[in-house]
Design brief:
about 575 residues; four-stranded mixed beta sheet; 2 helices; single chain; elongated; mainly beta
């Protein structure tokens, strides 16, 4: 019997062939209009036809034929008409053969032989046997030999099944006889490197066009000079007509065909979706559909494009002005343009609210006023009226309620290379200005009315007495920890230096020999002195008459171990003490 078997391995739309009991082609299903076909130039270049590629199709160029790998090797697929199936040995003549298989019975005592959907017979495992060591127990047999297990195995020529019991073939069931003629198949090569395979009424289109290491469909694609596949295009933007060739190809280095089949210029070698995006100054941006409140409608063009240098489109398609040149998320952030109009900044919303950063703050998701009135004890809540200097920002200032004077403060921190905090203390970042002291306890600069600009100079006893509530005069350990964190260079502490510590020193010098009535001043030197709480202990055991000071010198000098007489006048900084 001549076999007309076609199995397309690796074809994009496979030809699924069902082989009937007479091995003839009975049905071709799942055939699409386009598929791909592997090819070689000469027959001798065909790979070895082995079991793992059995059923593969290969197109041989020099013979213009398709060959199929079968159990008998490579056979030419020449479209001959299948011969009539031979008559089976015992089966009755049938209109058309059906596939048969063997299936173990439910009680596992043998095998049902199923052809099509019908059981045509059953083979029991044994007869007239006693309980077999391997076979099932016979129903009525006595004194029989042990039964043996049976199974069904497809014949070598695949025309039926051999029945094996105990390793011995006891019978064969043929698939059928008198099968119908198989359908003839033809192979036709057409334009654009396409091959049409037709079996009966069914057909498939195969492609032998290749690009680089792959293949493509010449009807919808083309292979460019970079050996990559691109879609053919059929329409262009206005003015780009000369750049689209009549066959739908184009220069892929400067143009691309977008999802709507439209030829568009690349945006600096980048393709994009022209229906939802546009190219602005070599950047792909999303088109917008509306403008944010407060912006002019004419900032948005009819096609949804806009000036991408100054504006951006949010995820919801709304046009916003950039904040100091940067886009942001309008749902979670806002641009504060009031605190510093020349350099606006992006701020996280408070819950869903925006606020004026200069005067308000966000506390636990609620907007609160950051500006408060510094009210002295014993005064009513109208004390700030007409006294704008008593208003302060609670985020960076605290109120000395003794005289209604606010002071700047900062929590000065330092971290190591691992991001661990190695120093953290809260300091006043301006000098003490309290004047309600005993006579002779403070002095002021001649150009500073009531110490309001630079702060007062205090004796050591006054310095120990007049830090605000919750604050204290620093001792040597406090100054040493500060220097350990930020070093001994004066610029690290000076307001007109790098001020990396944030201590913000202004060079004010100090006043000496206050008790003589003939004071000597160093107020104009490039140095500053701050009292330390630590007294300078005398070897004689007498009451100390001097105390240490924190010195920020004119050159590369910062120290905390120097001393001054307690009757001298030096500046005062206070450090915050945690409540016990």
């Amino acid at each position: 019997m001549k076999k007309n078997v076609i199995v397309a391995s690796g074809i994009a739309a496979g030809l699924a062939l069902l082989v009937a009991c007479g091995d003839e082609v009975t049905e071709v299903t799942n055939v699409t209009e386009k598929a791909s076909l592997d090819q070689v130039k000469k027959f001798k270049e065909l790979p070895k036809c082995e079991e793992d590629i059995e059923g593969s199709l290969m197109y041989v160029k020099d013979s213009a034929k398709v060959f199929v790998c079968t159990g008998d090797g490579w056979e030419s697929f020449d479209g001959a008409v299948g011969e009539k199936g031979e008559k089976g040995d015992k089966g009755a003549a049938g209109d058309k053969g059906t596939s048969c298989t063997a299936k173990q019975t439910k009680d596992k005592t043998g095998f049902d032989i199923v052809c099509g959907d019908k059981t045509v017979g059953t083979i029991k495992n044994g007869e007239n046997g006693e309980d077999g060591k391997k076979g099932a127990q016979g129903d009525k047999g006595e004194d029989g030999e042990n039964g043996t297990s049976c199974t069904a195995k497809q014949t070598k020529d695949k025309t039926g099944f051999d029945i094996l019991c105990g390793g011995k073939t006891v019978g064969t069931i043929k698939n059928g006889e008198d099968g119908e003629d198989g359908d003839a198949c033809t192979l036709t090569e057409i334009e654009n490197g396409q091959v049409v395979v037709k079996c009966g009424e069914e057909s498939a289109t195969l492609f032998k066009a290749s690009c680089g290491v792959g293949s493509y469909d010449p009807a919808t694609q083309f292979c460019a000079n970079d050996m990559k596949v691109y879609p053919l295009c059929h329409n262009t933007l206005a003015g780009l007509e000369p750049y689209l060739n009549p066959d739908g190809t184009y220069n892929v280095q400067g143009y691309f065909c977008d999802a709507s089949d439209l030829l568009v210029s690349l945006c600096v070698s980048v393709a994009y979706d022209y229906t939802t995006q546009f190219c602005s100054r070599s950047t792909v941006l999303n088109r917008c559909n509306s403008v944010a409140e407060g912006l002019a409608e004419d900032l948005l063009n009819d096609d949804g494009s806009y000036n991408g240098m100054d504006y951006f489109c949010s995820e919801k398609g709304v046009l916003y002005e950039k904040c100091n040149g940067s886009p942001y998320d309008p749902d979670l952030q806002f641009c504060d343009r009031t605190t510093n109009p020349e350099s606006p900044q992006v701020v996280t919303k408070c819950g869903e609210q925006t606020y004026i950063l200069e005067t308000h703050m966000c506390v636990d998701g609620q907007v609160e006023e950051a500006i408060a009135c510094c009210i002295p004890k014993g005064q009513n809540n109208k004390w700030c009226d007409g006294h704008p200097n008593s208003l302060y920002d609670v985020r960076k200032q605290f109120c000395d309620t003794r005289d209604g004077r606010p002071y700047d403060f900062k929590t000065i921190t330092k971290t190591n290379g691992n991001g661990e905090v190695v120093y953290s203390e809260t300091w006043m970042t301006e000098n003490l200005k309290y004047t309600k002291t005993q006579e002779g306890e403070y002095m002021t600069r001649p150009d500073d009315d009531k110490c309001s600009t630079y702060g007062c100079y205090y004796t050591w006893l006054a310095a120990n007495s007049y830090c605000p509530e919750g604050w204290d005069l620093p001792d040597n350990a406090d100054y040493r920890a500060l220097m350990d964190a930020f070093g001994a260079k004066p610029t690290a502490y000076r307001l007109n230096g790098t001020n990396i510590s944030g201590f913000s020193v202004i060079d004010l010098g100090g006043y000496y020999f206050g008790a003589t009535g003939q004071s000597s001043s160093s107020a104009n030197t490039l140095s500053s002195y701050f009292w330390s709480k630590t007294e300078r202990v005398l070897d004689s055991g007498e009451e100390p008459t001097s105390a240490n000071r924190f010195f920020v010198g004119a050159k590369n000098t910062v120290q905390y171990t120097g001393s001054s007489d307690k009757i001298d006048y030096l500046s005062v900084r206070c450090i915050k003490r945690n409540a016990e």
